[in-house]
Known about the structure:
Number of strands: 0
Radius of gyration: 23 Å
Number of domains: 2
Number of helices: 8
Shape: elongated
Structural class: mainly alpha
Order of helices and strands: HHHHHHHH
Amino acid sequence: MKNGKSPGSDNIPVEIVKVGRHRVIELLRIAFNKCLEEQTIPEIWNCAIVILLHKKEGTGEKAGSDHVRKTNEWLRHQSKVTDVIKRVARLKWEWVGHMARKTDTWSKRLLEWRPWGEKRPRGRPQMRWDDDIRQIAGTRWLQVAQSRDEWRSLKEAYTQVVETG
Length: 165
């Protein structure tokens, strides 16, 4: 970012961002994590101008490389922002385990419910919400979920599968 450029819609000059970059990064991390926890996004964030920045040739850190790519993992590590996909996967896994351990509630009955007498539509079957759970915990996942320790040990494997798609 070059000095002397006009600020964006937030009216924050580039010079301020440069001087306080460590504090700005910390404040952004706090704001992003709060958005994830509260599951809301400030309305002002919907008004943004996004510009694609192309990297210049020969700006890489290693000699002879054209450029250095920064991955999403690198960005999350630097900013300490939670990965949304992993968080949602963990919450789903914990919720399913919680529901499977409950006894005689309507939510437990919904987990075990299977439609009778309905024909499936033609074509490839759509993914069901528990297909990825069965992939990790097996077809007897309701029984596996009864053991909290065993269920917790499978949680990280589940988030890895969901993340890789």
